[in-house]
Design a protein that fits this description.
- By secondary structure, the protein is mainly β.
- Pfam families: TAXi_C (PF14541), TAXi_N (PF14543).
Length: 441
């Protein structure tokens, strides 16, 4: 069975995104600021594992960060994903391959602190309850995990523990998936990151394992710099945060992801016009379908079909005089974004657009300007480029959720307060926030 390897696609719109991580975890005796490279790169289908009710996508732009794992430490590159639980690495026991690879696999044989987890341990029998596919026992009596992929591909391996290094602090005994085999239905299924950093509310996510009481991030929409804070923060210059409570449901429901960062969506506005949407259209039903979640591992935002249709019609009406609609019903970007426009190649700036605001209980996220349209790479029609509305129809993906991706979260201070079970939002210039944090070093 072929190992899942990684290669970065050559693409002109890929940019480097630098995160500055401020750690104030209880296990750290001194506040430290570490600058880590985080890349924004195209991820093809079949790369990120998704539970059945999560987003299926053709390709996506994801955020990656470099940390160390093992003793002695090995450098690994991980996709940051607040929508996934289990952190995992592509494991390869071939020392020579790891040494010459630009983005090395993790070699468990080279780590003295690596420990496989038995299938009889409580970690395997209890803490894997939210896995999309239950953990099992392999022939060596080790805890076996199978991750389901977006295009019916899969990746398999064992649960293990090792030391995860963040900014000079080691976190021994961190549980992760050591993935050694894969089945891919995608001919382009070669990728170059070492794995994924799970940051949701599941018991095996890094947030839960490291007992992080609060974390925040801020992604710039200009130069793609940003900051990620693990632990508490009290920066007065961020401004006042507006909080919305996290929605928790303890009982299992078929379409509700209990480990996701779920909030209540109570309305949507185009400019200042509140759309005619009933509560039943925005709230989860008795099956859990219709939850609204923040997902850093997804690029754009996807709404359930009936809600998306209302938003699409209003945005189309308000931009009719300023934008030329792409008249091609067969073209759908990322399988779910069907409202696209033709913009002349020689037009350096988009016209003024009507903003879109997602209204939550207690807070609001306003999306405006260039965040509303995304230029489709390598798509030119005559003398026009193609831009698509950055909200899509989740029904076209077979998804029963509202998913708010990281594109709409740009220039937002996003604070996830797990102690008080709430999410704080504030509109800020994330590039300026990054400069202030740098000034604290």
């Amino acid at each position: 069975m072929r190992s899942l390897r990684c290669t970065i696609p050559t693409n002109p719109f890929l940019k480097i995104l630098t995160f500055f991580i401020l750690q104030t975890l209880p296990l750290i005796t001194q506040t430290k600021i570490l600058t880590l490279p985080l890349k924004s790169q195209v991820i093809s289908s079949g790369y990120l594992p998704r539970p059945p009710n999560k987003l299926r996508f053709h390709h996506n732009v994801s955020l990656t960060v470099s940390i160390t794992v093992g003793t002695p430490p090995q450098n690994v590159s991980l996709v940051i994903d607040t929508g996934s639980e289990l952190s995992w690495l592509h494991c390869n026991n071939n020392t020579t391959t790891n040494r010459v690879s630009q983005n090395p696999f993790f070699n468990p044989n080279s780590s003295s602190s690596y420990k496989p987890i038995s299938c009889s341990s409580s970690t395997c029998t209890t803490r894997t309850r939210d896995f999309p596919i239950p953990a099992s026992c392999d022939s060596n009596n080790l805890c076996h995990a199978t991750l389901s992929y977006a295009d019916f591909s899969s990746s398999e391996g064992n649960l293990a523990s090792d030391s995860f290094g963040f900014g000079g602090s080691d976190n021994p005994g961190t549980v992760f998936g050591c993935m050694k085999s894969s089945v891919s239905t995608n001919s382009d299924g070669d990728f170059n990151t070492t794995g994924l950093m799970g940051m949701n509310l599941g018991s095996l996510s890094l947030v839960s394992q490291l007992k992080i009481p609060k974390f925040s991030y801020c992604i710039s929409g200009s130069d793609l710099s940003g900051i990620l804070l693990l632990g508490g923060s009290n920066f007065s210059w961020v401004g006042s945060l507006n909080y919305t409570p996290l929605l928790r449901i303890s009982i299992p429901l078929p379409y509700f992801d209990r480990a996701a960062y779920t909030v209540r969506l109570i309305g949507i506005k185009v400019s200042e016009k509140l759309l005619n949407l009933s509560n039943d259209m925005l709230a989860p039903d008795h099956t859990g379908a219709g939850q609204t979640m923040f997902d850093l591992g997804t690029q754009f935002t996807f709404l359930l079909g009936p809600v998306y249709s209302v938003l699409r019609e209003e945005f189309l009406n308000q931009t009719n005089s300023t934008l030329r609609v792409l008249d091609n019903s067969d073209f759908v970007f990322q399988e779910a974004m069907d409202l696209c426009y033709r913009v002349p190649l020689n037009q350096s700036k988009l016209p003024e657009l009507s903003s879109v605001s997602l209204v939550f209980e207690g807070s609001e996220m306003k999306v405006s300007g260039d965040q509303l349209l995304y230029r489709v790479p390598n798509r030119v029609l005559g003398n026009d480029s193609v831009y698509c509305f950055t909200f899509g129809n989740s029904d076209l993906l077979g998804v029963e959720s509202f998913i708010i991706g990281h594109h709409q979260q740009q220039n937002m201070w996003m604070e996830f307060d797990l102690v008080q079970s709430r999410v704080g939002l504030a509109h800020v210039r994330c590039d300026l926030v990054g400069q202030k944090v740098l000034g604290m070093v």
